[in-house]
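Let's practice the habit of predicting before peeking. Look at the sequence and jot down your guess about where helices and strands might fall. Then scroll down.
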Amino acid sequence: MIPAHLSLLYPFVPLDDATVEAVERLATGMPAFELTLGTPEVRGDLSYAPGVSPQLAHLIGRVRERWPDVVPRQSAPKRLPVLPPPG
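Done guessing? Here is the structure:
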């Protein structure tokens, strides 16, 4: 089971000590910010889509600048609601 996390770029690069340190450097100095998560969805596991956040967009931009050769996956699995629609 994968612990709770936020994917800034997927697929990502292999996670080694240098990668972890690079991500830590990117986030260092950024102030904490609130992030609203959307409706829970099941895509293999339970997931929540993040709401609109300029701070999150900035962090994602920094990650993409650091790893420009990593092309984000363009297709997403079909999203299924966790709860039935109201009514």
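How did you do? Residues 36-70 form one domain.
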